[in-house]
Amino acid sequence: MTKSNITRRGVLKTGAVAGAGVALPTIFTSRAHAYTNEPTGSTVTLGFNVPQSGPYADEGADELRAYQLAVEHLNGEGDGGMLNTFSSKALQGNGILGKKVEYVTGDTQTKSDAARASARSMIEKDGAVMITGGSSSGVAVAVQALCQEAGVIFMAGLTHSNDTTGKDRRANGFRHFFNSYMSGAALAPVLASAYGTDRKAYHLTADYNWGYTTEQAIKESTEAIGWETVNAVKTPLGAGDFSSYITPVLQSGADVLVLNHYGGDMVNSLTNAVQFGLREAQANGKDFQIVVPLFSRLMARGAGENIKGIFGSTNWHWSLPDEGSQAFTRSFGTKYGFPPSQAAHTCYVQALLYADAVERAGTFEPCAVVEALEDFEFDGLGNGPTLYRAEDHQCFKDVLVVKGKENPESEFDLLEIVEITPVEQVTYPPDHPQFAGGSLGSCNNGA
Amino acid sequence: MDVIILQILNGLDKGSAYALIALGLTLIFGTLGVVNFAHGALFMLGAFCAVTLNRLLTLSFTTVDETRTDFLGNPAKVETPYVEAWFGPEVGGWMIEWSVPLAILFAIPIMAIIGLVMERGLIKHFYKRPHADQILVTFGLAIVLQEIIKFYYGANPIPTPAPDAFKGSFDFGVLLGFDPLTIMYPYWRLVYFLFAMVVIGAVFAFLQFTTFGMVVRAGMADRETVGLLGINIDRRFTIMFAIAAIVAGLAGVMYTPILSPNYHMGMDFLVLSFVVVVVGGMGSLPGAVLSGFLLGILQSFASMPQVIAVLPGINQIIIYLVAIVILLTRPRGLMGRKGVMEE
Q1: End of a domain among A314, A329, A356?
Q2: Where are the transmembrane segments (chain B) (predicted)?
Q3: Cβ-based contacts of A55 with chain B (< 8 Å)
Q4: Angle at A346 between CA A344 and CA A350, to 5 degrees
């Protein structure tokens, strides 16, 4: 018979010591990490968080294509695209800081909670050191706040609300895409010369943060040129049939309809407006007009020929003649067989800008990357000379005013560039009332 | 006054769609006793029949046109639809332009087959099960059908235009003595309303004036007795399921020029159609049609900016408010019969 030496107290003691021993290395290693998800091996992981399902899935698919192209170019595969035209020459085509670029993807479903969940999983499970993407301002604002807390960099994809770099701006977040204010500032003079200064406008507005800031921006800039705003009506997201919102427009005394809608909503509301004869109508002795502040080629394709002759603004278009745009269109078009959308462009550029900032900073540490991006001036990425302003992390560059093309030569040739509005005309002070109420705070390295 | 007429007109097309879907729902519920939550998906499948026919007709072959260049500066590829090559550009172009009305012919057999397969393959196993089981299985089926459509057609709406002859709108105001351009109504919505009336009329005539319809009505009233008379009532009910599927499918086909179809359009209509059925009275066909139009028109009134200004958000809840009021005052719905779902 053997006598057991095991006692309750003994087990507890050993357990405590062993537990502390097991925990110790992780305590040390996490202290040794200066920031969240520091890449230690020969690769670095980026997280692409795009809508792969839901109403903006087409935009999301194009964003993902652009990111895959950017990863190829960063790793030195393919023709290099905009790496050849980018004014900063820090990127060598050997990954980022010599580490091969890998990526994981998440599905935002165009819903803030789903987008946060997928971003969190990419940060915590996959070790992503940077999150980028998105095709909705609601999503962008939510994910940007999450990245700030987690201590990773967020490079926003397609988001146009003033809030992203206004009241909801964050130190770890950066936006290359333009915004509602810029659309208003660029569109107003073009509208004044095309339709005159004595107009009465009626707004239909998508009922979320992007709709609100776009309505406000267009309202303020058109009222500044002498237009009057007759009415502004909020419409639920995904209303489907807009006919009951469209029919009161003609009786309101308005002679311009502004559709602050995006994606499927814009396709439906514009189609309804055309069906109800708004484009043939006369009001106040003038031809009735429709304006769509934010245009995209993917939307133009959805709206078909209803888009012809309608003014709007856009961040970028593949037919731009500059070297950078042409290089990007060439490598994207050769790989996928069709030209890239503005969503694809902004995402590709954001990936390059991040990689370049890391390369110049010499580290992936978020605060160092923030410093490298702040007040960074660059060129050769399709929008002419551009500044990443330090005060709000917004890019300042030229804005395109476009019009639905009357006689398209191909299925991609849907928008014609009316004017390239110079950056000075769309620049505003960081404390402009449309952007008030937010502060960047300080950058967060996490861990 | 003109505003009121306009909103009534506006309610008509949506009301037509509600009425057609609710009619099919009531037919299925009245005959088979099944609460079919996949009915919205049938509406959506009908719409995608139109999309599919349009795609088939525009199937093209590619030739290289050396005189033009594409966006990359390479020689342009020109797509020519096969139908234009086979029947000449004139006839082929006409077929593509009229693809939505042509899709009616295309959709009838397809929806009939889908209906038969659904009923024989799945729903017949749930006749004796509680309504909750039926709702779960048909709802699940609806989600599966949606995801299949999303996989093949993508998530974004697909524009499917009406023939050129029906583009633009009709000036109702002038007809009624108002100023021009006060009451505009798109031609296609008028077509949709008339089409719905024809389909509804045909279904009622079929049930009222044919022997088949008579047997079905008898079966709806007392299934057991009709069975005892030696009539195979189950087979007739299966056919009624297929007819209900065709009605929902046709409603979807013709709705495509009004609302570019996407994979979840069925769900948007389904919930409202159920409210329509409940308000009209479970099992009552005229009730379903009447309340379909009624709620369509009410909804369009509630979306008027003047109304929203007073009662924000009313456009989202008006239908449910009406349902609550009607169920409180007339628990069987507007035209409900005694004894339905009351055992």
Answers
A1: A314
A2: 16-35, 42-64, 102-123, 190-216, 237-258, 270-295, 307-328
A3: 155-156, 262
A4: 115
